Amino acid sequence: MIYLFDWGDTLMQDLPGQQGKMCNWRQVKTVDGAYQVLEKLSQQHAIYIATNAADSSAQEIEQAFARVGLSQFISGYFCHANLGLNKSSPAFYQAILTKLKIPAELAKTVTMIGDSYDKDIAPAIAAGLNATWLQGDSATKISEKNNRIKTIPSLKALLTDTT
Q1: CATH code at position 48
Q2: Which residues neighbour 8 within 8 Å (Cβ) at sequence distance 6 or greater?
Q3: What pTM, to 2 d.p., does this model score?
């Protein structure tokens, strides 16, 4: 199993008032449970970042993760800079499958985890992946019946939910 994680507000907090590249922010923070979740999952699964961050390169994204001790668990970083695509498009996820040499018929072996239905979940499902929607306190529910979308209230829920 391969896990793709969104960056902002899924693993690391998008802090109010911070601008520019996260690797250069004065302060960076993880989302509660990020270290424990990545530490556990990375023992048996490959972990990648799939982000829509337009002004950061893969190396700069890695630098931000290194500042909070998470880069050790991450196998690679996919972003606009190295894919040339916007994350809200299924083509973004298809390009990741191609880079990872995963044929389309095995797309369901990849799960995207993110907090935005429109940017993380819907396009990943359209590309054939599974998805886990980090809903937090959101009351929004999935209207359509889709067994490839799982919802969790917090990142820590993955600790008891995933083997």
Answers
A1: 3.40.50.1000
A2: 14, 22, 51, 53
A3: 0.92
